[in-house]
Each structure stands twice: as structure tokens, then as C-alpha cells.
Amino acid sequence: RVWSFRWTWYRNVVVDTDEGLFVTDPFNDGAATAMAAALAKQFPGKPIHTLLYSHYHLDHARGGSKLPAATQVLAHEKCPAYWKAAGATDVLAPTRLLEGKDQTLTIGGVEIQLLFTGHAHSDTNFAVFVPAERVLWVADMNLVKTYPPFGGPDHYAPGYMAALDRLASLDFSAAFSCAGSSN
């Protein structure tokens, strides 16, 4: 039920449910246009049920209007204020804002856990865990045998380490992120 779309070094997660697709991060207009074509080929006739912005960073949140209309568009409750401050008028508006805490969605019989990573890589980041498939996806935090430099933009090292420890404790067999995983 889990598939991924890759755009340059970015990667998102797509979960196929009986009600439609759960999709993260459209990235930008070009990526979203290519993603729409790939989704149509991979899942013919399947609508997008839910689009999730994993966090507010604009390299993840633009392009949503290039995807087929989603039943719901989710984002952390702080995202719209960040987009407004950045003058980003090209982000497809969320239909539902999420508190900064873990959320469990059940879409078309599939449990999808949105795990809030706290103040780590931004203060709006959600990882996606699909327990039945044992798949974990997280934006910009899944680096292999390395740690990003201290002082990076929107990077809080103690929170980042706590979030990684928490995510590593989950029972997953496949993990990938938008940060160039080879899975």
C-alpha cells in the first residue's frame, strides 16, 4: 500500500487506501506536475484523499494546486503564519490545521500515524508511520551515518536528537525521507 515519488533528491510518501491516496509534500509546481502524472499512471482513476504538508518549509509546500484536488489538505497549525511571513501566496491552503501533537488518521481502512517531531527540523514537522506496512517516512531528518551541521536553518540540535531517538525506537522495516534515501 505504500509507494514513493522521487523528485531530484526529494522523496515523498503515498499510501494507497480504499478511499483514495494519502500524499505528502508536493514540493513545487514542476515536481507536483510530474507527481500528478506518476500517480495517474501508478494508481489510475484513484483520487487524492489527503495531502499532508510535512512542515512549513517552502521547498515542500509549493505545488499543491498542480495535483488533482484532495478531499483534505493538512498542515501544522503554525504553517499558515510562516507562509504569510514569507509572502508565499502560492501554497494551496490547508483545509484542516493540526495541533503539534501526534495524530492518527484512518483513511480507507488504513491507519496512518502522523508523529510530531517537536522542535527539531522546524517546529511544524510530522513524520508518517504506517504500522501495518512497517514503513516510516520523515522529511529532511533521515540521514545515513551522519548528522547535519549544528546551526543549520531551523535546526534545533537537542530536539533533533530526541526526535531521531524516538523514531528509531519504532518497529519499522523500511524508512526513507526526502533527503536522498536509496530505498
Task: Explain what the structure shows.
The protein is α/β, with parallel strands linked by helices. Helices cover 20% and strands 29% of the residues. The chain has helices at residues 29-42, 58-61, 79-85, 157-168, and strands spanning 2-3, 6-7, 10-11, 14-17, 20-24, 48-52, 72-76, 96-98, 103-107, 110-116, 126-130, 135-138, 174-177. Strands 1-4-5-6-7-8 form a 6-stranded mixed sheet, with no helix packed on it. It is globular. The two termini are 15 Å apart. Residues 179-183 have low confidence and may be disordered.
Largest sheet: 6 strands, mixed
What are the secondary-structure elements, in order, as H or E? EEEEEHEHEHEEEEEHE
Shape assignment? globular
* Uncertain ranges: 179-183
Mean pLDDT: 90
The proportion of residues forming helix, as a percent range, comes to 10-25%
- Order of strands in the sheet with the most strands? 1-4-5-6-7-8
Radius of gyration: 15 Å
Q: What is the CA–CA distance across the termini?
A: 15 Å
Question: How many β-strands, per DSSP?
Answer: 13
Structural class: alpha/beta
**What is the strand content?**
25-35%
Number of helices: 4
